[in-house]
Amino acid sequence: MTKVKTYDELTFTDDFMFCKVLEGNPELCKELIELILDTRIEVVSEIGKQHPIEITPDGRGVRLDVRLVGDDTVFNLEMQNANRKNLPRRSRYYQDLTDLDMMDRGMKYDELKDSVIIFICTFDPFGGGLRRYTVKPHIEEETNIEYNDGTRKVFLSSLPQPDDGMSSELSRFLDYVNGGEPEGSLASRLENAVQFAKTEQNWRKEYMLLEEKYRDLLEEGREEGREEGRGQEREEVIRKMRKKGFSDEEIMQITDYSLEELKAVDPA
Asked: What are the pLDDT digits (tens) for 192-211?
């Protein structure tokens, strides 16, 4: 199991800190997305951390790390520390639920906003040795015909690989995500926001409460699952967290388990 960090040990790449920093600094969040996409976001009408979408039959839905709604585009920004080799299908699931969420709010098909899903990974998600992978739908039979359904997915790797023409500022940001010094304007301000977040006592208490509950349940799960191995240990922890009233969003936040892993355990 992943070591549970103390609040002071958290960095920008940890889910809890990632969400708090970007939620608390909407301009930094906007600037980060602009940097990644190399485009300006003129109007922002909404920003929220871990936006819950609950349309699935079991009512549990999915948690999105950071969601920013522009005038004509919805941006979802995700931090990924573990490579479970499911990002293409996971991004498809996020895309579908994002569209359903907009439709559920009364939009018609032709009123759907464009959607961009961004995964910032601390690993190479596709093993291609790139730092950026941009995915857009296309027509295989005729490359000269544009197929634009308004969706795009961007996968970034923080590993020190060729930058593929990306800006030096984005490259320095990814070096920072990879554990390097916060060089560059944006990386420096993000790190300052992380250090400021560590002085926020309400956030500290919130994390410490989650940490304490998780440590207790983790130890219980280890004891009960020891004879049957790590898989049983994980299942016991998830079940106990649910019995204690943790939402799936909170479980994913503190454990870094994926939604698919949670649904595989006691899905009813």
From this structure: 999 999 999 999 999 988 88
